[in-house]
Amino acid sequence: MKPIISMTNISKSFSGNKVLNDVSLDIFPGEIHALMGENGAGKSTLMKILTGIYSKDGGTIEVNGATVHFKDAKEAEHAGISVIHQELNIIPYLSVMENMFLGKQLTYGKTGILKTAAMKKETKRRLSQLGIAIEPEKTAGDLSVGHQQMVEIAKALATDAKVLIMDEPTAALTDREIETLFKVMNGLRKQGVAIVYISHRMEEIFRMCDRISVLRDGKYIGTKPIQDTTMDEIIKMMVGRELGDLFPDRDKSAGKEFLRVEDLSGPDLLENVSFSVKEGEVLGVAGLMGAGRSEIVETLFGARAKSGGKIFIEGKQVKIKNPFDAKKAGIAFVTEDRKSEGLILGMSVRKNMSLPNLKTLSNQGIISSKREKASARNFIDRLNIKTHSPEADVKNLSGGNQQKVVIGKWLGINPKILILDEPTRGVDIGAKKEIYNIINELTEQGVAIIMISSELPEVLGMSDRIMVIHEGRVARIIDKKDANQENIMQAATGGE
Amino acid sequence: MSRKWTHTLQTAGPLIGLILIVIILSILSPSFLSLNNILNVLRQVSINALIAFGMTLVILTGGIDLSVGSILALGGAITAKMLAGGMDPILAVLIGLLAGGIMGAINGIVITKGKVAPFIATLATMTIFRGLTLVYTDGRPITGLGDSTFFKMIGKGYISYVPLPVIWMLIAFVILLFVLKKTVFGRGIYAVGGNEEASILSGIKAGRVKIWVYIITGVLSAFAGLILTSRLNSAQPNAGMSYELDAIAAVVLGGTSLVGGRGWIFGTLVGALIIGVLNNGLNLLNVSPFFQQVVKGGVILLAVLIDRRNK
Ligand SMILES: Nc1ncnc2c1ncn2[C@@H]1O[C@H](COP(=O)(O)OP(=O)(O)OP(=O)(O)O)[C@@H](O)[C@H]1O
Ligand SMILES: [Mg+2]
C-alpha cells in the first residue's frame, strides 16, 4: 500500500529557533497513527505545516504521491485533509449551527439566502452521531469546554476528509464522550480514512492506534507498530530516559483541618456542598462533565456568585466575595480553560507569571523588574517550561507549556490552599510527573490541595480522599484506601 | 521578513512616518523648520496630546472615552466662573481639575458598575456634560477672569523659549510612561485590556483599574480645558467639540490597538505630533482647511492599513 501522506525532511524555525529538524513521516489510509512527544516537541507545528497554516522552511509534502504546496487550511481541506486543532476555535457568540457551517453555509444556489432548516437538521444529525444532544441555536460560548470540543469534532467530521488530524481531541472530554469518539474513529478507520492522533494519554494511544511516531526536540525519533512496542519504550523515546513510577509516593500524612466549606450553594446548580481539606492533604474531586465540579471551586474562589454557605480557614470564617479576597486568604486557583481564564495570550511569559503576584514583586506600587525577572526564571526552570525567552508571548508556547505557565503563576503567591482544575490537561508524561512532584512538595509544606480531574488514574494516584460530585451535590467522599474506578464511577452516575 | 524586523518596523513605524512628514514639509516650506514654528507646533499639539494620553490608558483597557471634549469645556468653564467671581486662582484651578476627575469617575462607574459599553456610556455623558456646560455658562463665553499671573502662566507662560503647555505635556508624558512601564497599576491596565476575565481570576480588581483610568482621563481633559481657557482668557461653552476624534486618531496613529491590551504612550505622543505637524504644514502651504481634513483622514487610514499589513 502507498502512503496517502508523505512528509520528507520537514524543517521549521520560529525567530531563529529550530522547532522541526528534518522530520519525515508517512501516513497510510485506514490507520490511526499516533504522534507523540513532549510538550513543545513540535507535533502541532508539524501538523500546521501539513495543513498549510504555517509555511515550511524546507522539505516536501506529498499527498497520494503528488507534491503539494498548501497556502492555507482551506486548500488542505479541499485536498481532503481536515484538522481538529488543539486550541478550541469555536466562535463564542455564534450559535452551534453557525459554527458548524462557518465559511460553508448551505444556500439556495448562489443567492446567499441561507437554508437554515437544512443546516439545523444536519447539525443535529452530526452531533447525535457523536452521542450528544445540543440545540443547534444555542450560543456556542455557553457550552461547556467539552461540548465545544465535540462541536469542533463534528465540524471536522462533516468535511468527509480522507485524512483527519486530531490534536489532543480528548483533553477536555469525559470518559463517556471519549468512548463515543473512539467508536466514530474505529468506523472511519474501516472506511479507509487515515487519522493522525495526538495525545498525551498513553492508555488511549495503546488502545486505539496502529502505529506510533515519536518526536523529541523537533527531531524524528522513530515509528513503531503498536504490537511491537511497550509504554515504557515509547516513554523512553519521548523523554530520552527512563521515567519510573508516574505517581510518586507521599510519605507525609495530612495534618489538622485547614479549610472547611459548609453548605455552599449556587443560584443554579450547587446544593449544600460541604467538605473539608487538611493541611498537606490532596482532596481529589471526581464527577462527570457538567456535574458542577468547576462550579464548586469557582464559587469557593469568589469567581461565581453564591446563594449560601460558609467558608472557614483554620476554623475562622472568611468572607470571599471576589478572587481578590480569595488570593488574600492564600487561595490559588489554576483554572480549567487556560486560553480564556488562565492566560493573557498577548502578554509575555514573565508578565503572565507575575500577574497574581505583583504585590510581593513591587515596592509601593512600583514593580521591581529584577525580582520579577528572577521569579519568572525560577519558575521556568522549576517547571521546565520550554520557551526561548521569558519575554516570548505566551501564545507562542506549545499547549502544554502554556499550562505550566498557569501553574507557575500561582505557585508564585506561595498559596496555603491550591485549587487545581484539570491541572495536567494537555501536559506530557514527563511534565505530569513534574507536576505530581510539585504537588507532593507542596503537601510537605502543609499546603491544602483540591484537585479536580477527569482522569481517574490521576485522581486515584494522587488523592488522599476523593469527593465525587453528582448533579451539584456531594455524592460521596471516599478514602484513598477504599477507592477504585468502579465505586467512583458509580457515585458519579448517581448510583449508590 | 524576519520577525525582529517586522517588530522594529511596527514600533518605529509611527516615528518613521513623522520624520518623513517633517522632511517633506521642510522641503516644501522653508519656514517650517524654524525654531519659532516648531515651538508653535508643539504648543498646539500639547492640548490634544494631554487628552490623548488619557485616551491611551482608556483604550488600553479596551474602552473608549467620547466625553473628553465636554469635560474639557465644563472643567474650563467652572474654573473660569470661579475666577471671574474673584476666587483664589489656585483653588479655582484645583476645583476645575477635581470636576474633571469627578466626571471621569462617573464615566468609570457607569461603565463598570452599570455594565454599560464604554462607547454608549461616554456618548451619553458627552451630551450630558456638554449640556451642563451650556446650562452653567448660559451658552455665553465667560470673560473677565481677572489678572492672576498664575492662571495666565498656565496657558501663556514660557520657560526661556519653551511654552509652558509643552512642559505640561512632557511632564504628563514622563509620568504616564513610568506608570505604564513600571507600576502595578500600569500592568493592571494592560492585563485588563488583554483578557479581563483572566485578570479578575488573577485577583486584579479590574473594575477599580478601569474607574481610575477614566478619572485620569477626566483630570487631563479638564487640565487641557484650563490651558485653553488661560490662552483665550475666556471659557467658551462650545470649546473642545470633536476633540475626542483627534485624541483617538493620535492613539491609533501611535499604534495602540483599539481592542485593548497592546500599545504605548510614546506612540501616542508621536501620533499627536503627526496630526499637529500636518495641521501646521498644510496651513503654511496654504492648503484650504476643507482639503486639510481630507489629507488628515487619508493619513490616518494609511497608517492603520500599514499596521494591518504588518500583523
Ligand atoms: N507561532 C509561533 N511562534 C514562535 N514559536 C512557536 C510558534 N508556534 C510554536 N512555537 C514553538 O515551537 C515549539 C513546538 O511547538 P508545538 O506547538 O509544535 O509543540 P507540541 O509538540 O504540539 O507541544 P504540546 O504537546 O505542548 O502541544 C515550541 O517550543 C513552541 O514554543
Ligand atoms: Mg500541540
From TrEMBL, chain A:
UniProtKB keywords: ATP-binding, Cell membrane, Membrane, Nucleotide-binding, Repeat, Sugar transport, Translocase, Transport
Cell compartments where the protein resides: Cell inner membrane; Cell membrane
Gene Ontology MF term list: ATP binding; ATP hydrolysis activity
Keyword Translocase attached: yes
Entry keyword Ubl conjugation: no
Source organism superkingdom: Bacteria
One Pfam family, short name: ABC_tran
Entries under PROSITE patterns matching the protein: ABC_TRANSPORTER_1 (PS00211), ABC_TRANSPORTER_2 (PS50893)
The protein's name: Ribose ABC transporter ATP-binding protein
Protein species of origin: Scopulibacillus darangshiensis
Automatic annotation (TrEMBL), chain B:
Keyword Membrane: yes
Transmembrane segments: 12-33, 45-78, 90-110, 116-137, 158-180, 211-229, 250-278
Molecular function GO labels: transmembrane transporter activity
Pfam family, any one: BPD_transp_2
Membrane topology qualifier: Multi-pass membrane protein
GO cellular component: a single term: plasma membrane
Top-level taxon: Bacteria
InterPro entries the record matches: ABC_transp_permease (IPR001851)
PANTHER family membership: ABC TRANSPORTER PERMEASE PROTEIN YPHD-RELATED-RELATED, RIBOSE IMPORT PERMEASE PROTEIN RBSC
Name of the protein in its database record: Ribose ABC transporter membrane protein
